[in-house]
Amino acid sequence: MLSQIPGISPVVRAASIFVGQKFLMAITGLLLCRFLVTHVAGNRMLYTGAEQFKHYAELLHSRGLLLNTAEVGLACCTKAMNHQN
C-alpha cells in the first residue's frame, strides 16, 4: 500500500532489506531517545517553580502544528520499533 505513494518506493524497498530495517530501527530509536530527554527536561521544570513550569506548558501549547506533528512522528516511531521486534 505504501508503494503506491509517489516517491516513497525507494524507502519501502530499503525498509524491506535487513540493513534498511536496522537503519530504520536506529533512527526511530534515536528519535525516541531525543523525546525522552526532552520530556524529562520538561518534567524537571516542576522542581524549579510553578511559574516556570506554567511558562513551559504555555510554550508547548503555543507550538500547535509542530506539537501535533511531533506526536504523530512519535507514534510512527513507536509503531516502527514495535514492528521490528
Tell me about this structure.
The protein has one domain. The longest helix has 26 residues. It is 79% helix and 0% strand. The mean pLDDT is 78. The protein has 85 residues and is mainly α. It contains four helices and no strands.
**Percentage beta strand:** under 5%
Helix-strand makeup class: mainly alpha
Oligomeric assembly: single chain
Shape: elongated
Radius of gyration: 17 Å
Helix content: over 70%
What is the β-strand count? 0
Mean pLDDT: 78
State the separation between the terminal residues, measured CA to CA.
22 Å
Report the order of strands and helices: HHHH
Uncertain ranges: none
| Count of DSSP H/I helices | 4
Largest sheet: none
The tally of domains stands at: 1
Task: Summarize the topology.
Blueprint: H1 9-16, H2 18-43, H3 50-62, H4 65-84
List keywords for this structure.
mainly alpha, elongated
Task: Give a short synopsis of this structure.
With 85 residues, the chain is an all-alpha fold. The chain contains four helices and no strands. The chain is elongated.
